[in-house]
Amino acid sequence: MGCISKHYLNETTILGVWKIEEDIKTLLEMVVLDNGDKKKYKGFASTSRRLEFLSVRALLAELLGKDTKIVYNKNNKPFLKDGSRFISISHSHKLTAILCSTDEKVGIDLEYMSSNINAFAFKFLNRKEKVTKSSEDRKYHLYIHWCAKESLYKICDKEGISIKKNITIEPFEVRESGEIKGSVHTQKINETFDLFYSRYDNYAIVWTKKNYGNK
Q1: Average pLDDT for 99-116
Q2: What is the separation, in whole angstroms, between the first and last Cα of the chain?
Q3: In this structure, which topology does domain 109-210 adopt according to CATH?
């Protein structure tokens, strides 16, 4: 199917979503891989990981052009090789999402809502966070919390952050889509963020962005 969403959040920030329905051969024809990409691609043993890898490159080409290249730091955080934009990437099951901006740091996470998230919610929720008791909405509510925390973890560059202890999502009433607030508190960070969530089929998607001035 390819790119199912290309949304300009403002003049400098783009959110794109790709639905993987192509086979590997088709995706390979859509992208231009340099030697580094080819080496990384060949290192994936599973077809699903190769499809994810190629879908990221295909979506990036759709958003920014085929010459755009991704590199990774020691923490496996993605960057654009030319340094022109901040970027955040997420993929789960058949969806890949990219959020990029020239002047705002960004974080995005999407999850296919398949697992019994209630069984391990204690691993990421803290005592300040509230989840609905409605059995109909609870699963989605928990996934929003999880994706929101992952988005904040990414925008803060991951280092030294406990998703449970250092990230708190303020209580909110769950809807199909909406805006929520979250905070990150560590010895180095004391920040509050606006986050936006939505549901697509059986996926939860949450993203955040923040302008810190010049890069």
Answers
A1: 95
A2: 35
A3: Ribosomal Protein L22; Chain A (3.90.470)
